[in-house]
Each structure stands twice: as structure tokens, then as C-alpha cells.
Amino acid sequence: MKYESSSQFVDSLKETIPDVIVDDVDLVRGHNVDWTGKVEGCARFLLRPSSPAQLELILMLANRFQTPIHIQGGNTSLVGGATPIKSEFILTTSKLKRIRNFDSQLGRVTCEAGVTLSELSNYLKGTGYHFGVDLASRDSATIGGMISTNAGGIHFIRHGGLRDQVVSLDLITPAFGLVSASSQYLKDNTGIDVGRIAIGAEGTIGVVTSATLRLVPNTASSFTALIGVATFTEALDKLRFARQFASLTAAEFFTYDGVVLIEKALGASIPFRSRFYLLFQFDGGMSLGHELSEAFGDSDGDVAVATDSTASKKTLVST
Ligand SMILES: Cc1cc2nc3c(=O)[nH]c(=O)nc-3n(C[C@H](O)[C@H](O)[C@H](O)COP(=O)(O)OP(=O)(O)OC[C@H]3O[C@@H](n4cnc5c(N)ncnc54)[C@H](O)[C@@H]3O)c2cc1C
After folding, report:
1. 301: Cβ below 6 Å to ligand 1?
2. 10 Å Cβ neighbour count for 274?
3. Protein residue whose Cα sits closest to atom 46 of ligand 1
4. What is the CATH number of the domain that holds 239?
């Protein structure tokens, strides 16, 4: 799809911020296809702002020339949402990588939208804190993309999704520029928190350029329990039991069919056969681990408990 105004948009960009525009076919192609490889876009240009000010200028010009642009973070969202099927321009946040502020007293971090989850986790190593949301696409998924999809991840049961982690954010819209600015304070009750409408909005309202996020204090130890159950009702009963413990940090359900696929792919085997499985993670030490192991073992199901990450891998999956 070609828009008449797009050549004026390109000319204006080349005049004002020439460094942001990339038309290298190979580079653009990588951003045109989604993570599944099933959805393909038609973009001819990649726009790579390296500051929120450049991004604001791009949006302003796009608005002036009525040129649609498609926002992209790590391109991992699996539903084609980051694929430009109706735009010649992909605006990538890949150069917005600054982590601007870390507050060890309040447990907050402010970072730009293009910081990946893994980059944030690495930054937080040794600080005594971690980010409450984790997902398997962590090496590519960006904070901006995660906010825009209200990502959930494996610790949702304990910490909630992205909506629950955002203290405040910077949102730039094409028509009004910066409409919301990040605040460091959790209890900031000044005015309307306009920025929050961008959470889960997939870029339809504007571009998230940075956010202040709450952090979770690290705990000394954690353990993992794998439980086999014969019926779905039994699985629900186990989950209800596990949820009584405030230290529950993750709960996953999967079927034997899934195990077969994983065993095939990894060349590994799970310690026992069951129709359904539950995988729980708890914060806590050995004593809680043993207590829960006995409690879960009271039923007909099988149980394996691992009390550290190396044991986790060995106990739950043997290669
Ligand atoms: C292996 C794997 C595991 C996954 N596990 C989970 C999971 O457990 N839970 C879960 O919720 N998701 C999961 N996902 C999906 C995906 O990782 C998340 O949706 C993630 O939040 C997307 O981030 P992204 O940076 O890749 O965004 P993109 O895919 O690049 O973009 C997603 C949407 O947000 C918009 N967008 C991106 N950046 C911005 C921005 N700065 N401002 C405004 N709009 C923007 C895009 O236009 C698009 O509509 C998984 C994906 C994979 C591949």
C-alpha cells in the first residue's frame, strides 16, 4: 500500500533527522516478518529514533503528512500485532535503550521503551531486586512492547501483569506530543494519569517511550514442585491448596501430550508419567519444601520437589 504523502514524509525526515531512516532491504525484511514467520508486512522503511525527542519529531511529521506508521518493539507478540500490513514505515524502539534511574530505597527503575526484559534483569543483578514479570521471550521482548500488550508471564499469579508494575510512563501521541510524563512516586495523586490508557493499547494511542516500574525484593531461596494428577478437578484442588501459601510465585498446568513434545525436542525425560501436570514455584526454604511435598504427596498423584535451580533441572527433567 503506497500513500501519496509518504514521499513528502520521507523528504522531511531526510531534511531534519536523516540518521533515523533506513531503507536497507535486508534490514527492513527482518522487521517485516513476525516471530511465527506466518505474518508478513509490506514496510519499505525502518525508522530508528535514538531519543524520545527524535521519536516525537517523527510522529509529528507523520501526523502532518497523514502517513501511517507501525510501532515495533521486540516483534515477539505472536499475533501479528507488530507486523506492518498497512504501513510502509516501521518505527522501532530498538535504539531507546537507556536505563535512566534506579531507586534502591523505593525499589523503582526508570527505563526507555527499547530495553529488553533480559537487559533489565541483567541491570538489576546484585541490586537485591528483580522485575515481577518474566516470560520466555525475555531476550527480545521490550519494556515498551510488554506495556503495550499488558504482558502477563509466569509469575502472574503472584505479581500480576505489566499493568500492576507500571508506576508511571512517558507517552507520546502524534497530535499532542508528550501527553504523560514519568513520575518516580508510587503515591502521586496529582491530576489524571493519562499515560495508563496506553497499557494494553498496542500502540493505538501513542508510543510509550519510557516507564518507571516497581521492583520486587529478592528472596533468599525458592523451590519448585512438579505434581502429577489424573483429573482436571484434582488439578484445580491442588491449585487451590497451593494458593493458600503467600509464597506461591508461579503455577503452570500442562498435559501429557505437551510433555511428549518437550521430551522429543530436548531429548529429556520427566520423572513420572501422568495425565496432567502442575508446576509450582514457591519462595521459601527446605522446611517449607518438605512440608508441601508431604501435603501434595497425600494424594494419588506423583510429586517431585527441587530446592535449588540446579536440582530443579535434575529433579524435574533428566537428560
Ligand atoms: C516464546 C514466547 C513466550 C511468550 N510468553 C508470553 C507470556 O508468558 N505472557 C505474555 O503475556 N506474552 C508472552 N509472549 C508474547 C510477547 O512476548 C509479549 O506480548 C511481549 O509483551 C511483546 O513485546 P515486544 O517488545 O516483542 O512487542 P511487539 O511484538 O514488538 O509489539 C507488540 C504490540 O505493541 C506495540 N508496541 C510495541 N512497542 C510499543 C511502544 N513502545 N509503544 C506503543 N506500542 C508499542 C506494537 O505495535 C504491537 O501492537 C511470548 C512470546 C514468545 C515468542
Report:
1. no
2. 19
3. 82
4. 3.30.70.2190
Whole-number pLDDT of residue 125? 96
Residue 285 Cα distances to 145, 150, 217, angstroms: 35, 32, 16
User: Global pTM?
Assistant: 0.90
Ligand 1 pocket test target in 36, 77, 164 with most atoms within 8 Å of CB: 77
Give the Å distance between the CA of 80 and the centre of ligand 1.
Answer: 10
Cβ 213 under 6 angstroms from ligand 1:
no
pLDDT of 194 = 85
Mean pLDDT for back-to-back runs of 10 residues, the chain (319 residues): 74 95 92 89 94 97 94 93 87 97 94 98 97 96 98 94 95 91 76 89 95 94 89 93 89 94 88 91 77 66 70 49
Q: What CATH number is associated with residue 131?
A: 3.30.465.10
Atom of ligand 1 nearest to the CA of 96: 41
Spacing, Cα 152 to ligand 1 middle (Å): 10
Instruction: State whether 137 and 177 are in the same domain.
Output: yes
